[in-house]
């Protein structure tokens, strides 16, 4: 069985004349340790799909199995447990707590899950050991995003989800963040899924899933993917 198996997914919002079909018969698989980019324009359904994978939204139809968990069959408490155990989230705008240091932001996961990674070791892994006592306002955008990635990694999740994680960064900083996430996939066997409208990012992924109008338009496997620091923005 693949790490992620999505079959005939559908998601509908509203009812009657206001009914909106966000996902329509979406199926794909993702293997453990793959770095996958989900591409599509605004309104294509890519963020809805990411929310489904993260257990933050419910299905209207179909099924998603992630690392053995059938998400459609989980109640609210079970979905909360799934998010805590399995998933690390990285968002576009960091979502760090301004009154906590970088280390304290990363260490928060200890209050959520067991078997977390040491926050000092994770911050060192993302190149921020010397900045661990700084507050978010004292860090650059790229450094704050690396703290957000460290926070996601510290949970020691099997799945890392990124919602436009480089969208607020300049090209150089964005490339370094992508390189870090690529390393998590290749060296730590974390399954990484990013949604973006930036086609260039797909060049460093193992697989690119393109969505348009709520449907899968294409799935491309990169036989010769690029290293993140070699792509041109």
Give a brief outline of the structure.
The chain has helices at 46-53, 76-86, 102-107, 119-125, 141-154, 171-188, and strands at residues 4-13, 20-30, 35-39, 61-66, 69-70, 87-90, 159-163, 191-196, 207-212, 215-221.
Can you tell me about this structure?
The strands form two sheets. The chain has a six-stranded mixed beta sheet with strand order 6-7-8-3-9-10. It has a four-stranded antiparallel beta sheet with strand order 2-1-4-5, covered by helices on one side. It has 233 residues and is α/β, with parallel strands linked by helices. The protein has a single domain (4-230), classed as Rossmann fold, CATH 3.40.50. The mean pLDDT is 89. The longest helix is centred in the last third of the chain and has 18 residues, at 171-188. It contains six helices and ten strands. A hairpin with a 6-residue loop joins strand 1 and strand 2 (20-30). It is globular, with a radius of gyration of 17 Å. Helix 4 (119-125) packs across helix 5 and helix 5 (141-154) packs parallel to helix 6 (171-188).
Keywords:
233 residues, alpha/beta, Rossmann fold, four-stranded antiparallel beta sheet, 6 helices, 27% helix, 27% strand, globular
> How large is the share of residues in beta strands?
25-35%
Strand arrangement within the widest β-sheet reads: 6-7-8-3-9-10
Structural class: alpha/beta
Q: Give, in order, the helices and strands.
A: EEEHEEHEHHHEHEEE
CATH architecture: 3-Layer(aba) Sandwich
CATH domain topology: Rossmann fold
CATH class call: Alpha Beta
């Amino acid at each position: 069985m693949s790490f992620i198996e999505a079959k005939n997914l559908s998601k509908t919002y509203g009812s009657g004349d206001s009914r909106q079909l966000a996902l329509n018969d979406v199926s794909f698989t993702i293997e453990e340790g793959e770095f996958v980019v989900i591409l599509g324009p605004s309104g294509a359904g890519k963020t809805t799909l990411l929310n489904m994978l993260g257990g933050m939204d419910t299905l209207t139809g179909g099924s998603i199995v992630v690392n053995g968990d059938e998400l459609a069959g989980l109640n609210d408490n079970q979905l909360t447990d799934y998010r805590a155990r399995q998933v690390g989230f990285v968002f576009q705008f960091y979502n760090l707590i301004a009154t906590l240091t970088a280390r304290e932001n990363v260490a928060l996961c200890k209050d959520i899950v067991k078997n977390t990674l040491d926050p000092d070791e994770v911050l060192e892994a993302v190149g921020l050991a010397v900045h661990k006592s700084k507050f978010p306002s004292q860090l650059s955008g790229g450094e704050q995003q690396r703290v957000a990635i460290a926070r996601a990694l510290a949970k020691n999740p099997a799945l890392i989800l990124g919602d436009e994680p480089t969208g607020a960064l300049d090209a150089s900083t964005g490339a370094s963040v992508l390189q870090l996430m690529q390393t998590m996939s290749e060296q730590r066997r974390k399954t990484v899924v990013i949604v973006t409208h930036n086609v260039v990012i797909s060049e460093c992924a193992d697989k690119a899933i393109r969505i348009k109008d709520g449907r899968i338009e294409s799935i491309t496997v990169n036989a010769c993917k690029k290293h993140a620091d070699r792509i041109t923005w």
